[in-house]
Design brief:
22 strands; alpha+beta; oxidoreductase activity, acting on paired donors, with incorporation or reduction of molecular oxygen; Rieske Iron-sulfur Protein; binds fe (ii) ion; binds FE2/S2 (inorganic) cluster
Length: 388
């Protein structure tokens, strides 16, 4: 480096599109498509068709009057009118243009303009994706139908006790900003393996956004698991006890981050970072709670104000996860990064992603897919643990 290395000669680098891209046929897009993904709240699948953007694909979500959710390609197989304007009936959705009716699996049930109601309508199949409902979400499988896995269960969400409930949320919990996050999903997901930003961004820089203990610089260990990468963060508290905080990511886009307010025990919150396209994503969160307002109460306030009400000057004075991650770029320029020892978790995750891309491209299975009923409950290890 010399004094002549000014910004004048600087040429920005490029994103790593293999890791960030989510569309059909893209390297990691094909990894994401091998798993079930939450795509909407169950409550949002209704008899009013709804547009969704999932992994770069525009789709129409609806629920038949007899109660079955469906997820169809929008352009009607007849001559392309959008099923967004369709009318939902007992067993399917009727295209507004010439009245063809499609069931949730794309079968054409009626062609009212055709003689005898369309004797050849069974040759038509509206492109569709399989969906299932669980835990208050509609889950969709957008991958190769021949390789469709089972929809897993998660041990921390099972066997609710008296007075406990599951909260299903799509408001961007953990994103630190708006409901629809307007930058590449991976900037958020890999942040789960960046425990060193916590004492800086969330304490030293912006004031205590969580609790005081989180301001201590942790000792950190990263390790690969069967399903992703885990970090263990050790902090010695004032009273001498050791706080062991375990966070993990599970392929292809699950974040397991225990409450940053340090509720003790295994985490009761799971979050799926679901890309809409390369430049935006939703966080679908499930929480086990006794208080229906549990997630709302976890949201950070900034000098008593919610994020949406901050002025530009307040965003500058108290930046949080959203300000840090969005400002990396709509899709960050990985080519310009300088990874150091504390980025080990991020580097391990990127390496594991590259490995799974090759595995999927070679016809193999990425980690954690469940094909056998006996393996259907996934064990979660993340949480906050106090050791004496
Ligand atoms: S375009 Fe849908 S029925 Fe004709
Ligand atoms: Fe953070």
């Amino acid at each position: 480096m010399t004094d002549t290395d000014t910004a004048y000669g600087f040429r920005p680098g490029q994103p790593n599109r293999d890791l960030t891209g989510v569309g059909r046929g893209t390297p990691y897009g094909e990894v994401l498509r091998r798993y079930w993904q939450p795509v909407a709240l169950s409550a949002d699948a209704t008899t009013t068709p709804r547009r969704l953007l999932v992994l770069g694909e525009e789709l129409i979500l609806f629920r038949t009057r007899s109660g079955t959710p469906g997820l169809l390609y929008p352009r009607c197989a007849h001559r392309g009118a959008s099923l967004f304007y369709g009318g939902v009936e007992d067993e399917g959705i009727r295209c507004c243009y010439h009245g063809w009716v499609f069931d949730p699996s794309g079968h054409c049930l009626e062609q009212p303009c055709e003689p005898e109601g369309g004797p050849h309508r069974d040759r038509i199949r509206q492109p569709w994706y399989p969906v299932q409902e669980r835990y208050g979400f509609v889950w969709a499988y957008l991958g190769d139908p021949e390789r469709k896995p089972l929809l897993p269960r998660y041990d921390v969400l099972e066997d609710l006790g008296e007075g406990e409930l599951l909260i299903a949320d799509d408001s961007g919990v953990g994103g630190g900003g708006p409901k629809l996050l307007d930058f590449n999903w991976l900037q958020h997901w890999e942040n789960v393996l960046d425990p060193f930003h916590v004492p800086i961004l969330h304490a030293r820089f912006s004031g205590f956004q969580f609790v005081r203990e989180m301001a201590l610089m942790p000792e950190v260990r990263f390790e690969y698991t069967d399903r992703g990468v885990r970090s263990t963060q050790l902090r010695t508290l004032d009273d001498g006890r050791r706080l062991r905080r375990v966070t993990e990511v599970m392929f292809p886009n699950l974040r397991v981050v225990a409450s940053p307010r340090l509720a003790a025990g295994r985490t009761d919150i799971l979050g799926w970072v679901v890309p809409r396209d390369d430049e935006s994503f939703h966080i679908f969160t499930l929480a086990r709670a006794t208080d229906p307002d549990y997630l709302r109460r976890l949201r950070s306030t900034h000098d008593g104000k919610p994020w949406a009400e901050l002025t530009d000057a307040e965003h500058q004075r108290m930046p949080g996860d959203y300000e840090a991650q969005k400002s990396q770029g709509t899709v960050t320029l990985h080519g310009d990064d300088h990874l150091t020892t504390t980025d080990q978790g991020v580097a391990m995750l990127r390496r594991m992603m590259a490995k799974q891309i090759s595995r999927v491209a070679d016809g193999g299975d990425p980690p954690g897919l469940v094909f056998d009923d006996r393996d259907v409950v996934v064990a979660i290890t993340g949480g906050n643990f106090l050791d004496d």
